[in-house]
Amino acid sequence: MKIGVQFQTHGVEPSRFVSVARSAAELGVDGVFLWDHMVPFVGSSDDSAWETWTLLGAIATVASEFRVELGVLVSPLTFRHPAVLARAAATVARLSGGGFVLGVGAGGFVHDDRLFGDRRSTRERMADFRERLESLRRAVDDQNRRHGTSVRIWVGGDGVRVTVPAAARWADGWSG
């Protein structure tokens, strides 16, 4: 069995994420994952979280040293463009010297949505998710081919009408 740890991206100074990832790697975990939200799930919705992809770049040195898998669970496709995500994931994969799990979801966390002014209905958001996931699949495949990286797409969510079928069609894994 493989064991991974996941961290929220608020509550401590950014440099602490690198030291905590190092401690986890020294304890023998197989993977280190960050979430990707702009506002914490707990605490005040006025608090902001540190930027996930910048933290992943910093943690990549630890992943490289300890051969720990790195990933994000999950980046909302509501405010992360597929082409930018694919390139960021390939960059972090190359920096870490290993594979990368690019977890994505349809968004819908009310505080993130408010921050970005996203007032779409669930139906509209899910239709956009399908399109963006398909675009992400093409972009990740292109980056993997160009750079020899091993970025795998996972889809987070448990919606049986859109999320799970979309994961089966365009993703490498699913986290329900």
Write a short abstract of this structure.
The chain has about 180 residues and is an alpha/beta fold. The chain contains six helices and six strands. α3 links the parallel β3 (about 70-75) and β4.
Throw out a few tags for this protein.
single chain, alpha/beta, 18% strand, TIM Barrel, 6-stranded parallel β-sheet, 6 helices, 176 residues
Question: What do you see in this structure?
Answer:
The protein is an alpha/beta fold and 176 residues long. Helix content is 48%, strand content 18%. It has helices spanning 14-26, 52-66, 82-96, 110-116, 122-147, 163-170, and strands at residues 4-7, 31-34, 69-76, 100-105, 151-156, 173-175. The longest helix has 26 residues, at 122-147. Strands 1-2-3-4-5-6 form a six-stranded parallel β-sheet. The chain has a single domain (4-175), classed as Alpha-Beta Barrel (TIM Barrel).
Helices and strands in order:
Blueprint: E1 4-7, H1 14-26, E2 31-34, H2 52-66, E3 69-76, H3 82-96, E4 100-105, H4 110-116, H5 122-147, E5 151-156, H6 163-170, E6 173-175
Parallel strand pairs: 1-2, 2-3, 3-4, 4-5, 5-6
In terms of structural class, how would the helical and strand content be classed? alpha/beta
The CATH homologous superfamily is called Luciferase-like domain
Order of helices and strands: EHEHEHEHHEHE
- The overall pLDDT average reads 91
Task: From the alpha carbons, calculate the radius of gyration and give it in angstroms.
Answer: 16 Å
CATH domain class: Alpha Beta
CATH topology: TIM Barrel
Q: What is the count of DSSP helices, taking H or I runs of 4+ residues?
A: 6
Counting structural domains, the number is 1
Task: Characterize the overall form.
Answer: globular
**Biggest β-sheet: strands ordered side by side in the sheet:** 1-2-3-4-5-6
Task: Give the biggest beta sheet.
Answer: 6 strands, parallel
Distance between the terminal alpha carbons, to the nearest Å? 19 Å
| Model regions low in confidence, pLDDT < 50 over at least 5 residues | none
Specify the CATH architecture.
Answer: Alpha-Beta Barrel
**Which band does the percent of strand residues land in?**
15-25%
How helical, in percent, are the residues?
A: 40-55%
According to DSSP, the number of beta strands is: 6
